[in-house]
Amino acid sequence: MEETSSNPMNPAEALRIVSEKIQVETKIISLLRDEFSKVIVGQKYMLDRLLIALLADGHILLEGVPGLAKTLAITTLADAVNVEFSRIQFTPDLLPADVTGTLIYSQKTETFTVRKGPIFANFILADEINRAPAKVQSALLEAMQERQITIGDETYPLPKPFLVLATQNPIEQEGTYPLPEAQVDRFMLKVYLDYPSKEEERLIIRSNVSQSGLPKVQGILNPEDIERCRGLVKEVYLDEKIEQYIVDIVYATREPSQFGLDYLTPMISVGCSPRASINLALAAKAFAFLQGRGFVIPEDIRAIAPDVMQHRLGLTYEAEAENVSAADIVSKIINKIEVP
Fold first, then answer.
1. What pLDDT does 3 receive?
2. Residue 144, Cβ neighbours under 10 Å: how many?
3. Considering only CA atoms, which of 301, 311, 256, 299 is closest in space to residue 280?
4. What are the residues facing 295 on neighbouring strands?
5. Which of 99, 170, 253, 323 could be a cystine partner for 272, CB 3.0 to 4.6 Å?
6. Contact 126, 165 (CB under 8 A)
7. How far is CA 41 from CA 48, 276, 317, 329, in A?
């Protein structure tokens, strides 16, 4: 909410203005959804999370068995947003320089020149990110957090908007490298994808075997539209009571006993970091924006919390032995914490 000392704006009036702006922008988002659905059948949940990451300036990790259109969804979104797109297929023999770029020596000029890697694009599809060794995965850390890459002695800013959309498969773990906790924490959202319904699968078959093939997606947004929408997302109102609600939910992963959740203590080895609180607030604002609202309500927090928190929780052997997942723990916490 912007205020000037000479003419302070009434909070209710400021909220009304923000809401009106959001109503205009959500019409563009609706067009984007329509383009997306031309190619991707169903998967509304995945699209919503992709849009939340895009609007909240975060990164997203998609996990699901092969064939659930993870890669296709990301490339389709990139086509619908007129930005530079780059796909990096992660493999065990990939080197950090293959991602970030390197210095090339020219014998002719006797100087080093910079050859920028595929990371220098707006949308980065890091396909099967867990197939690359830790060295390569860590090469993404500076890019994801600092939005810059250092090659030699020089640091180069990455283009805006910059969004890493990574995929990984939960099966075929042989020959894969689990993501370091520091990198997992830098993903705003981790989304687990499930199989389509019978009806959706029938439509998927029809669209993929038709003579015309998959339809072409039209560009709906451009970088300026994204930056404008992101500015509006930041203006979405977050009440102090909602802030406290976020803090309580995240803090309950560190000190469950303070919230009457003593039985969760032996199941959690590491609680969520402060980055979880920050990303939960940002993601909730983006979620409210997609609903056409200029303010966050508790239901927004409850809806987005599992995707923000479950990959940041460390589970003990006891939790694994009892087949309790991070999603189960987040669900129990959300159901226990008092709603403001």
1. 47
2. 21
3. 301
4. 237
5. 253
6. yes
7. 14, 31, 38, 31
User: Which of the residue ranges 79-93, 181-195, 322-336 has the most confident prediction, judged by mean pLDDT?
Assistant: 322-336
Give the architecture (CATH level 2) of 11-223.
Answer: 3-Layer(aba) Sandwich (3.40)
Distance CA 236, CA 62 (A): 26
- Letter for the amino acid at 262? D
Q: Which residues pair with 63 in a beta bridge?
A: 168, 192
How many angstroms separate the Cα of 162 from the Cα of each of 86, 119, 169, 262? 11, 9, 24, 41
For residue 47, which phi and psi values (nearest 5 degrees)? -60, -45
Cβ(53)–Cβ(188) below 8 Å: yes
Could you give the CA distance from residue 81 to residue 223 in angstroms, rounded to a whole number?
A: 8
**From the CB of residue 49, how many other CB atoms can be counted at a distance below 10 Å?**
23
Cβ–Cβ < 8 Å for 130, 91 = no
Distances (CA, A) of 109 to 104, 114, 155: 11, 13, 22
Strand (E) positions, the chain?
A: 60-63, 85-89, 101-106, 111-116, 123-127, 148-151, 154-157, 163-168, 189-192, 268-270, 314-315
Q: How far is CA 156 from the centre of its chain?
A: 23
% of the chain at pLDDT higher than 90: 17
Percent pLDDT > 70 in the chain is 92
pLDDT mean across residues, the chain: 83
Domain 237-336's class? mainly alpha
Tell me how far CA of residue 80 lies from CA of 77, 168, 182, 309, in angstroms: 5, 23, 31, 29
Which residues have C-beta within 8 Å of that of residue 293, sequence separation ≥ 6? 19, 22, 236
In the chain, domain spans: 11-223, 237-336
User: Can you tell me the mean pLDDT for 300-308?
Assistant: 93
Can you tell me the mean pLDDT for 157-161? Answer: 87
Strand partners, 268: 315
The full length of the chain comes to: 340
Query: Strand pairing of 85-89 and 189-192?
Result: unpaired
Whole-angstrom distance, CA of residue 204 vs CA of residue 26:
27
